[in-house]
TrEMBL record:
Residues 205-228 are annotated as: Disordered. It comes from Georgfuchsia toluolica. This is AB hydrolase-1 domain-containing protein. It comes from the Bacteria. Residues 2-182 form the AB hydrolase-1 domain. Pfam families: Abhydrolase_1. InterPro entries: AB_hydrolase_1 (IPR000073), AB_hydrolase_fold (IPR029058), Carboxylesterase_BioH (IPR050228).
Length: 228
């Protein structure tokens, strides 16, 4: 996946990108920067950090491995998502779900992902050590966004990252679980835009490195308090 990211960045030419990665995408971005594969201007990690919770990983793996024989309808897909994300209101419009599944020749829907990534399981300890080393070497503006209801990235996991890279900033989004941008895109979008407008303003050089204050969203957009 790092090689894929390198190809995407190479297609940009001489422009240095901002990497915004959620979950596995965030881990891929951190590795790409840590191993000097990508020269980025800023990094946004969404509900991912070196230390993640085994229970959350098991829940994701269980969700992705269910129904290998395929779902018989998009309604059944929606039911599976509702069981996995009980905090989220079940969608009535099923059209969007078609982007996450593929329809096989047998008429059944299967998740649109490569099962090879789960073939050998997840070595959490090895993963954590690797990403901790990369986090401690970060020098670029970095924002960590966590879903307050997430079972993958705990508050302690987020704080551990902030200790590894004290210059990073932090936003904790209320009423959002692991899929932060899906659950509260209003807060997520506002937080990322505000961060990037300061550290990599369009059309000019960065005017301010990550400030010491770490914004912490605890409610609707605009409701911010400091973390000690």
């Amino acid at each position: 996946m790092v090689q894929d990211l390198k190809c995407v960045v190479a297609a940009l030419g001489n422009r240095r990108p901002v990497l915004v990665g959620a979950s596995l995408g965030g881990g891929t971005s951190l590795v790409a920067i840590g191993e000097d594969h990508v020269d980025a201007t800023a990094l946004v990690l969404v509900d991912v950090a070196p230390h993640i919770e085994k229970e959350g990983v098991d829940n994701i793996v269980g969700f992705m491995r269910q129904k290998p024989e395929g779902f018989i309808s998009l309604e059944e897909v929606a039911d599976a998502i509702a069981r996995y994300q009980p905090h989220r209101k079940r969608t009535r419009n099923l059209d969007g779900l078609s982007k996450n599944v593929r329809l096989g020749t047998d008429g059944r829907y299967r998740w649109h992902w490569d099962p090879f990534i789960l073939a050998d399981g997840v070595e959490l300890e090895q993963r954590q050590m690797r990403l901790e080393a990369y986090s401690a070497r970060l020098t670029l503006p970095t924002l960590l966004v966590r879903g307050a209801l997430s079972d993958l990235l705990s508050e302690s996991g987020a704080q551990a990252f902030l200790k590894l890279y004290p210059d990073s900033e932090y936003v904790n989004v209320a009423d959002a679980a692991h899929m932060v941008a899906v659950d509260r895109n209003d807060i997520f979008g506002s937080a990322v835009i505000e961060f990037l407008s300061r550290v990599v303003p369009v059309g000019s050089k960065p005017v301010q490195k990550p400030h010491e204050r770490r914004p912490h969203h605890v409610g609707p957009a605009g409701d911010i308090s400091d973390i000690p």
